[in-house]
Design brief:
Layout: E1 40-43, E2 51-54, E3 78-85, E4 94-99, H1 102-113, E5 117-122, E6 132-143, E7 149-166, E8 172-178, H2 193-214, H3 231-241, H4 246-254, H5 258-285
Parallel strand pairs: 2-4, 3-5
Antiparallel strand pairs: 1-2, 3-8, 4-7, 5-6, 6-7, 7-8
């Protein structure tokens, strides 16, 4: 559910295909700024599913699968094939992908023959990819006659790239899993994760209500947004609604503190609500004049 695509501004609100060569291992991931060359494009879809397409690649016969990657290395890291895309995948969120570049078709053959998992990392227009990404598990796929794939993946656990293992025929990295850390100290009253989650849900309701009014939609009661989710998965759900602001989404994905993530989302929603409230006041003060004859 995209709540705020027209409010949360991104430097690149419309992303187009960006074909690029595979990066060298030494330059694939940058720490400052934290963002591998993008070889994909995204088109906006409806709801939580979005369509992302790999950039145009070489045509040819169906690729053969390379050796499956090992599930875990001696140092405790997991080797994971990575797909850089101009979008951010959150745990439990779903994305629809169209795979047609040759190297990513090779990757999908390997993924579908092993554990159905690959990593998605956000890649903007700066020529590098984020170090923190999210595992996508293939939950449904269709292989076409020309060896392209349509698939739906669901976000699983987050990871941080520790090192690049190889870049050909596609990028593989050794990653470590990320989990939110419990607070080191007792939070201040009203600043614990549960209270923050309640605040965020209330703000989301208000944002939806005013946004519907501005867009001329009939007012109706907003349903249960939290749906019984604990604070951590709810914070990921909220982050996934911030479509149109992938860099803000990436910042939320990288946080390892649930309360900090919810606090940042609360601030963003408050700013959005202030903006919408002002826009609504202007609309009420200067209603559109009926068109004449």
């Amino acid at each position: 559910m995209a709540l705020l695509p027209q409010i949360l501004h991104s430097p690149h609100p419309r992303l187009t295909a960006a074909a690029a060569a595979s990066p060298s291992p030494s330059r694939a991931f940058c720490r400052a700024p934290r963002h591998l060359h993008a070889s994909a494009s995204r088109t906006r879809g409806r709801g939580r599913g979005r369509l992302a397409t790999a950039a145009a690649g070489a045509s040819g016969p169906g690729p053969s699968s390379p050796e499956p990657y090992p599930p875990e290395s001696d140092d405790g890291l997991v080797e994971l094939p990575l797909f850089p895309l101009p979008l951010v995948l959150f745990p439990d969120a779903t994305h629809a992908l169209h795979i047609f570049e040759y190297r990513y078709r090779i990757m999908m053959h390997t993924v579908l023959q092993t554990d159905l998992r690959f990593g998605i990392v956000f890649a903007g227009n700066s020529g590098s990819a984020a170090e923190v990404g999210c595992v996508g598990e293939v939950v449904k796929h269709e292989r076409l006659a020309d060896d392209r794939f349509f698939l739906i993946c669901k976000g699983q656990q987050r990871f941080r790239v520790a090192r690049v293992v190889r870049t050909k025929p596609y990028l593989v990295a050794a990653v470590q899993w990320l989990e939110d850390r419990p607070p080191a100290e007792a939070p201040a009253p009203g600043e614990d994760a549960e209270a923050l989650a309640a605040d965020v849900e209330t703000l989301m309701r208000d944002v939806i209500r005013i946004a519907n009014r501005l867009n001329g939609k009939p007012e109706k009661e907003v349903g249960d947004l939290r749906r019984g989710l604990f604070p951590t998965p709810f914070s990921f759900y909220v982050g996934n609604t911030f479509e149109g602001a992938p860099r803000e989404q990436q910042a939320l994905l990288e946080l390892e503190d649930t309360a900090a993530r919810l606090r940042r989302e609360r601030d963003t929603l408050r700013n959005t609500l202030n903006y919408l409230t002002a826009a609504s006041a202007v609309k009420d003060a200067f209603p559109s004049s009926p068109s004449s004859g």
